[in-house]
Design goal:
Radius of gyration: 27 Å
Shape: globular
Bound molecules: alpha-D-galactopyranose
Helix content: 10-25%
CATH superfamily of the largest domain: alpha-galactosidase from lactobacil brevis
Number of domains: 3
Distance between the termini: 40 Å
Largest sheet: 10 strands, antiparallel
CATH topology of the largest domain: Beta-galactosidase, Chain A, domain 5
Structural class: alpha+beta
Amino acid sequence: MPIIHNKEGNEFHLYNNKISYIIRELPNRQMGQVYFGKRVRHRESYADMINNSCRPISSNPVAKDPNFSLEFARQEYPAFGTSDFREPAYEIIQRNGSHIMEFVFDSFRIIQGKPETEGLPHSYVENKNEAWTLEICMTDHLTGVKLVMFYSIYENAAVIVRSVRFINTGSETVCLKRAMSMSLDISDSDYEWLQFSGAWGRERTPFIRDLEKSGVTMIESMRGHSSSQHNPFVILKRKNTTEDEGEAFGFNLVYSGNFMTLADSDTFDHLRLMMGINPRNFCWNLEPDTEFQTPEVIITYTRNGLNELSGSIHDFLRSRVARGYWRDRTRPVVLNNWEATGMDFTEESILQIAKKGAEAGIELFVLDDGWFGSRKEESGLGDWFPDRSKLPGGLKGLSEKIHAMGMKFGIWIEPEMGNPDSELYRQHPEYVLRTPSRNKSLGRNQLVLDFSDPEVVEHIFNSLSTAFDGVGIDYIKWDMNASVTECYSAHWPAEKQGEVYHRYMLGVYSLYEKMTAAYPQVLFESCASGGCRFDAGMLYYAPQAWCSDDTDAIERIKIQYGSSYGYPVSSFGAHVSAVPNQQTGRSVSLKTRGNTAFFGAFGYEMDLTKLSDEEFRQVREQIRFVKEYREVLQKGRFYRLGSPFEKDIAAWMSVSDDQKLAIVGVYIIKTNVNMGFRQIKLKGLNPSFDYEINGKEIQGGDILMEYGLTPQIAAEYPKVPYVSPARTIEISGEYDSKIYVLNSDGDSRPQ
Ligand code: GLA
């Protein structure tokens, strides 16, 4: 069993062949952190690995034990105020106004598999043998509140999944002011913090920060969604950790609402990392006989660099968080009309674009915003019935015509919103989140619906199913375009207003649950003004997400590159759009636009009828390429080879499981004249295989990985005089790119 309990000291060792996670009861009967890292051999006792020492002016919670203080003890789920003064994992206010709790060890259970977490997205098992779960129950005897800490370890993943549940078995209601999903005290603080931040249109840019030497490093969202400003995924890495070497921890929060994650470095050189629902504006009334379950955190560990860390995260999110019919299927090639028409379309104009798409080999046509109610920029949102002036045959009429062209039919919705000018709002003004007698801010002229109220969720579900039943919908793009402001729900009494942000998310998840159950074969793509809600929680319901509203290929290289640290390529909705690009005004070749979008759930976001014959031929070729190679592009092992944030040439690659096929993408982000020579060292190949590169040259996997691929970049841009290139120029000039397809017969060559 991969969880061993040492009775002496009440120690638990969770392990698999990659990692060990060891915890132990502390002198005050709380649980302490002993070790988390590479697998170590089991021992009878880890008592010597607890830091005990008598420190001047530290407070000691256990009488006559001056060596023990929570001020420096490494803990599993710390509280403030009982001799620890660092960031707490939880805070509970009792009726008498006290914040002090004393959770002491009560009991434990080791179970095979992993229990379901109702109402929240979570990782799962397909078979009980693949994971074990440790549940440790702690009790605060004065209030009768219990704290259950969950730890799951999978047999084949360098991953620990943590969450906690508070259960009130007492007789008074307490207020949960803070309930983080996990807290981890690491034994030294010599790490860097890598966060993925940005804004609309430039989501998930990697930022390395030095940790505060003595203090707190933190990111958060208070927007009601996980946000493009800060992603709920962070990495802790050693200063010298690279893509290929070194230690790193990854933390993915499986949640899509307000979050906080922080690292608190103490004066004794420990580091406390915690993650969970943002405690700001949070206050959950834990009534007698009720429970509160936090979202999960997936903690990933490596000693072998960031590419390996990301690989473990990709595998885990793709196979044990994403679910359903489309989880393991390669994704259809999409044509979406948004950048082609906006809301200004008729059935006829849509069919013309769709027809061209069918000719090009498109597999799924998606009708974006503008098909319903009296939809204009400022009106109609929330009215989920077709606008007959645009679609005389309704959705069914259009769907039949698209299907008759041999394509699947997809549709855009934004179920969590309404315009003030909509039938929905006129009939149900009480359905929106707003603070009574206060100004209401609008985002994109929209009001956020009160999804904390189950009646609102039910109403939207009914209107969506009325619109979609029998229509033949194959795909749904679920958008969300406004932040939650003036958060207040008319549905809940005053004392429950601190629950509304989280209850809103529970409402969103419940609608996703209803929709995915009602339409099990529909492919869901989540979206929030592009990539503003791109997180592991959404992946549980929608196996792909629209990466960003910025479709400029060069910007997309950055966005997809940054996203790849914490999310699998199969989850990146990535489309080729028209030039000049609508967001940046930049013109990039069709080739590079395709070469970028290949590494994602591929599609087009443009009017294909406007292409020249030559461009159309290229589009057909791109689609043929994706169909041939999407298995490896979307499901292969992905490696970052060169960062667009650091280098003038970016590169990445995907390798098939059997290592016989690999696709490499190389992109010039910035050029200068007479550029230096470049070697792009490939990864994940088999060193003893020979690879044919683009059906021509043959190179050993060893050379490709150790010496590298040496593309002939235009040091010699063709128009520069006095140059006659010795080798054919393969990539020339700014924003050019090249795809290399590497094929091997799989025979090992002797050294
Ligand atoms: C958001 C999405 C876009 C598009 C528009 C429609 O911005 O990210 O892809 O669907 O809404 O209004």
